[in-house]
Each structure stands twice: as C-alpha cells, then as structure tokens.
Write a structure and sequence with these properties.
By secondary structure, the chain is mainly α. Strands 1-2 form a two-stranded antiparallel sheet. The N and C termini lie far apart (about 60 Å). The C terminus is likely disordered.
Length: about 550
C-alpha cells in the first residue's frame, strides 16, 4: 500500500466512524413516522441546501470528473443539465409537492391509483436507486484500487455496508447531519484540487493545451445525442426527483424549501467547474488511461504529498456518501413504506419504519450486486436508473397531477410496459454505454411507451363515457395549444427525419410529439358527465375558474 493509499483509507475510516456516531445522535430525533421519513418537516433553508448540494453536486462532481478526462470541457453540459433540474424544482414544483405532503413519488401514485400501483411503483423505484448509489461508489473504489490494489468490487461492497450502518439509525435526520459534514469535506477537496491544478499543469499549461489538444476544448465533443439525453432526462426527472422532494419536503414551509434549492444550485457551481478542470488536468498529465476515475487519483498522487492526497479523496468519499446515502434511504422508503403499505394496509407508523430498516438491507445487497456487474462508466449507471425509473413512473405522475380520467389498470400497464421497454431497448443495444439500438436512446423509448400505454388503455376502458371537452376555458386554451404543438412537432419530425436521426435527436422528437399529444389528451378528454366547455374557437376572455387537476 502506498503512503497516499494509507492516508486515503485512514481518513475515510475515521470520517465514516464520525458519521456513524452522528447517525446515533440522529436516532434520538428520528422517532417514528414523519420524523423518520421527512425529519418531522422541521428543516431550514440552509439544511435543505446542504442536503441537496450533497446529493446532486457530489454526484455531478464524480460523473463530470470521469467524463472530463475522456471528453474534455464538453462534460460541463452534464452539470448544467443537473443545475437546470434543481432550478425547475425550486421555481415550479416544490410548492405544490410540499403542500401535498409528498414523501415519495411511488406513494403519491399509490394514493391516487391504489395498492397495486403503490406496490409496483415502489418496487421499481427501489430497484433503481441502488444503481445511482453504485455510480458514485465506483469513484472512491477506483481511488482505493489505484492506491492499494484493493478490488473495486470489494470497495463498493464496503461502501454499501457503511451506508447501511449509519442510515438505519436516524433516517432523514442522519441525512441532514451527514450532508452538512459532507459539504465541508467538499470544500477541502476543492481547495486541495486547486493546489494540484495550479502546480501541474498550471494555468499557463492548461491554456497552452487548447492549441495542442483542441478536441478537449470543444463544447460538443461528448456528442449531441448524449447532451440531449442528459438535458431531456434531467428535465423530465423534475417531477420524479423523489430523493430531492423527500429532502426539500422536510422543510418547515414551501418557501424555505424553495430558498434551500436555489442555494443548492449556487453551491454546486464550484464543484462542477472543479470537476471539469481536475479531470482535464489528469488527461494532460496522464493521458491514455482506460478509466478516468483511476487516472485522477494517480494524477493527484503524482503532484501532491500523501496527506493532501488523502484529504482530496476524503472529499471524493464524501461525494460518494452525499449521493449514495439519500438514494439508498429514498429507495428503502419506497420499498419499506410503500411496498410494505401495499402488502399490509393496516401497518402502523412503527411497522413502516421497521419495514424501511429491513429494506435498507435489501438496498445494500442490490448495490453490491450492481457493483459486481459493471465498474466502469459511472455516469452510465445514473442514466440507466433514470431510464428505468422514469420509463415506469413518468406517465402515472402526470396522471396524478393532470388527468382525473386515468384508470388504475392503465397505470398498472404503463408502469410495467415502460419499465420493460427501457430494459428491452438496452438489451437490443448490447448494454453499450455510448451506442444505442437503432441510434435511439432507451430513455426516450421507455417514456414514450409509458405515455402511450397510459393513454391507450385509459381511452379503451372509458370508451363511451368520455367526451372531447374541457372543464375550464383556460384548460381548453392550453389543451388546444398542446394539440397544435404535437401536430407541428410530428410534421417537423417527418420532414427532417434524416437529419434528426443522424444527429441522435429522432427519439427526442418522437417523445416530444407524443408528450404534447398526451398533454392535449389529459386536458381535453373528460368524462361525459363532467361540465365541459365546447371546444370551439377561443373567445377573447379567460375564465376565472382555476384549472382542475
């Protein structure tokens, strides 16, 4: 074991023991029920900001660190897309979701569509969350491998077990305590990384590389299809960001949650920029490494003394915990609270907390299995998880928010069809991270099937009992606008198919047309016995009646 490896491992162990003790302190505040799952709704804006910064910025740092080593400055689009997601949640959705007292997205689906929907949505959600956890665990495991020779698979298993130790005690209060400490470690990591950057390659060497390595400084080097997939996935994920809503929803008021999210978007900017710079610096100093997450620790260890190397990778460990801990806990909440409630509707708050603690053990096992399956391309695990979870729950959530007509059977079918479509498309493409079957990313396929299934099954089941109309004039205006948009996007897609497909945008275009058609259907197709306005020419005034949802 190298000196850098000893410092890295030693600091990580001491740090984790401190977090486990914090979990025991949090246990005194966790209690049961809402206190365990959402901190008793007592978080301040700063607590929310630190929780969300630990979640998103830690994850972005690791994903961008690897991407920037291979694709240069264009990896910044990943961080920009994730920041857009946080801003949209803050400005549009945290208020309505907090007022609904949402704990989980799968629980919200179950509240509207019943026990089977709650159980299926909870199980699918729980299955995907360990994928997000393993994506960041791979980063620290790669550092341990580089310094100590310890197997990456063993290091991922070690990470999963440590997460289990401190999460099972204090629930959401454990998240609050540990995310605060993680953000302090982020700051130390950035400072140490800047020291390494300005030593080698230095600012002058970095600028000179723009001439010798121009491909690393091209904003589109990562490829337009992947950039589109990032933005599309993050934007769609806005209404499905369960871990974020669970943390931000733990706030005292919706306004506190909004301020916390805006602060988190601001706090994340230095981490995004730092990850781009450090990954590119590693590429300049140690090019041609297969794994970017192995190249970065080797670069840092060549430039800095062992204690500072240990501090830097303590920050990477904090990034791992900052993302993986909320993911494991939120997935366990879906499995324990939602699936448990679906199986046992009479379960008490104490029972649901116990089920969730058992679920954390299952999440740990899944994380270890996923880590054994693939240890490269950590960002790929993130996108796979979004594809499968969003492909299952996107349409049902829209049904909860916008379409009273949606039926339970349609939601059951949409959950299963969207999930299987995403997996099936990956299988047809050979599970290759950067190449997709027929050149279409699975995320668009899964969500398109999800939407189409919900609409089709609902309209078949309600045939003869519906009418084309709207309950308010405003709903009519918006619905007709979406209908016109769906026709326009469909025509543009057909006309420009060759260009769209060759640039990786055909899947997005079809999904855009289908989403617009779905929104028009949700707004304009109502029960026949509902009071509805005639869908004719829009008159020159807007009804004062609020939109029904």
């Amino acid at each position: 074991m190298t000196a850098a490896g000893a410092w890295t491992l030693g600091l990580a162990l001491v740090y984790t023991l401190a977090l486990i003790l914090a979990g025991q302190v949090a246990k005194r505040r966790a209690g049961r029920g809402d206190s365990y799952f959402v901190g008793g709704r007592q978080f301040t804006a700063l607590t929310v900001a630190l929780c969300v910064t630990g979640l998103f910025s830690g994850s972005s740092f690791i994903a961008i660190l690897e991407l920037s080593y291979h694709t240069g400055i264009s990896s910044i689009w990943y961080g920009i897309a994730e920041t857009v997601q946080i801003l949209l949640i803050a400005l549009v959705f945290i208020g309505p979701f907090r007022r609904r007292m949402v704990v989980t997205i799968s629980g919200m689906i179950g509240d509207r569509f019943g026990r089977v929907a709650r159980g299926v949505a909870g199980a699918i959600t729980a299955f995907t969350f360990p994928m997000w956890s393993v994506a960041t665990a791979i980063a620290f495991a790669s550092a341990l491998y580089a310094f100590t020779g310890l197997s990456i698979h063993v290091a991922v298993a070690f990470t999963a077990l440590l997460l289990l130790l401190y999460l099972s005690s204090g629930g959401m209060w454990s998240i609050a305590f540990t995310q605060t400490v993680n953000c302090m470690a982020f700051l130390l990591m950035l400072l140490v990384g800047l020291v390494a950057f300005f030593i080698t390659p230095g600012w002058s060497g970095f600028v000179a590389a723009a001439a010798s390595h121009p491909e690393s400084f091209e904003m589109g080097a990562v490829g337009l299809p992947l950039i589109i997939a990032w933005f599309g996935t993050f934007i769609v994920n806005v209404i499905l960001a369960q871990a974020t809503f669970q943390m931000a929803g733990s706030c005292q008021t919706p306004a506190e949650g909004r301020r916390g999210l805006l602060l988190a978007a601001l706090f994340g900017i230095p981490l995004i920029l730092g990850a781009v710079g450090f990954g590119m610096a590693a590429d300049l100093v140690l090019p041609d490494q297969k794994l970017g997450l192995v190249a970065v620790p080797l670069y840092i260890s060549q430039v800095l003394p062992a204690p500072l190397v240990g501090v830097f990778f303590l920050g990477v460990w904090a990034c791992t915990l900052g993302w993986a801990a909320p993911c494991q806990f939120s997935g366990a909440t879906s499995l324990g609270r939602d699936v448990g409630q679906a199986i046992n509707p009479e379960a008490s708050d104490r029972d649901l907390v116990r089920y969730t603690r058992w679920a954390l053990i299952a999440m740990t096992g899944l994380m270890i299995v996923f880590g054994a399956l693939r240890t490269e391309q950590s960002a790929w695990w993130n996108v796979l998880a979004w594809t499968l979870r969003n492909g299952a729950t996107f349409a049902p959530v829209l049904g909860v928010l916008l379409w009273p007509l949606a039926t339970r059977r349609a939601v059951h079918a949409a959950l299963i069809a969207g999930f299987l479509a995403g997996i099936g498309w990956y299988q047809l493409g050979g599970w290759i991270p950067t190449k997709y079957f027929l050149g279409v990313h699975p995320v668009w396929v899964g969500m398109s099937v999800n939407l189409l299934t919900l609409m089709t099954v609902t309209l078949i089941e309600t045939a003869g009992t519906t009418r084309f109309g709207a309950t308010t004039d405003l709903r009519r205006r918006v619905g007709l606008g979406f209908l016109a948009a769906s026709v326009a996007v469909a025509l543009a897609t057909g006309w420009g198919w060759t260009w769209l497909h060759s640039n990786g945008m055909s899947g997005l275009a079809v999904f855009g047309a289908l989403t617009s058609l779905s929104m028009a259907t949700f707004l304009l197709v109502q029960r026949a016995d509902d009071a509805a306005t005639d869908v004719g020419p829009v008159e020159g005034h807007t009804s004062a009646v609020p939109v029904r949802s």
